[in-house]
Amino acid sequence: NWPSFVQLKEVGPRDGLQNEKQFISTEDKIAWIDMLSNTGVREIEYSSFVNPKWIPALADAKEVGKRIKRNPNVLYSALVPNMKGLENALEAGIDGASVFMSASETHNQKNINKAIDDTYPILKEVIKEAKQEGKKVTGYVSTVFDCPYEGPISPEEVIRVCEQLMEYGVDDISLGDTIGSAVPSQVELLLNTILKRMPSERIFMHFHDTRGMAIANIMTSLQYGINRFDTSIGGLGGCPYAPGAAGNVATNDVLYLLHGLGVTTDIQDKRIQDASIFIQNKLGKKLPSRSFAYVEST
Ligand code: HMG
Ligand code: MG
């Protein structure tokens, strides 16, 4: 039993590129995001307004935001860590702001240079301001299953962070398997706990595919009624502060699963393939997606 419609948020231009050593030119990013805008996807996380010293691959976020062609059917969001990031994002143009923090203390510290308790007041202000500006706000919670530094994280630790972000006014929560370590029983444990406290309509699942478990975890989430997922075209991506973690689950592979199950997404496979070929050629290396590799070799 699974939902008949599933919404994918394309995070390739943000999570996909943030960890790439090779700088994709601003022109190429814009051309690629414009291609993604015409795939049928309803939300694109187009860049990140963090400190460019930390994430040089996305240092051109403002220019990208100003120059992409906006499709009125697409919600354009970006990652925002603090008020400075929000100001820049508003100037560049966003429909949605994605704030982020971790359920694990050590990952939070490594990723955003702050303790969890010191992060709350910063995000509270960002969320309030973004809502006042009429933006949709997503709260990413990282390391919801395992932390690369601390090991397993309990559902209670995750829920504590989610409830705080919900109280500040986020519209959605995205639960991140940052290092791609979870297996379906961990997904069941977390969803069994979390769905007692918040509705499934407010949850996105964000799986990295380090160990090839993401599709199994998505299937499990679908059976819990979850119908929103973050995916990255071709399987690009990774968190620079999660050593060894691979990219997000590939949009291509998730579409193969969903369309095979008869689930509607409104996304056109062929256009996703074209956008995959475009970025693969720019990066000059094979993308990790399995279904994309299959299409190419036939
Ligand atoms: P900080 O160094 O603690 O910040 O950084 P600060 O407030 O002390 O400021 C230090 C300097 O940074 C100052 O510049 C600020 O102006 C500048 P200086 O005076 O030294 O020249 N600065 C900024 N510049 C541009 N834009 C900004 C900004 N903020 C401060 N927004 C900060 C704190 C969070 C900014 C920093 O730690 C940072 O940028 N971290 C990057 C974290 C990141 O991007 N990680 C990857 C994304 S998260 C992820 O991938 C997980 C996710 O996918 C879900 C999952 O998979 O689990 C979302
Ligand atoms: Mg991620």
From TrEMBL:
This protein's record includes keyword Cell cycle: no
Keywords annotated in UniProt: Lyase, Metal-binding
Signal peptide start-end: none
GO molecular function: lyase activity
Pfam families in the record: HMGL-like
Lyase is among the record's keywords: yes
Recorded family membership: Belongs to the HMG-CoA lyase family.
Name listed for the protein in its UniProt record: Hydroxymethylglutaryl-CoA lyase
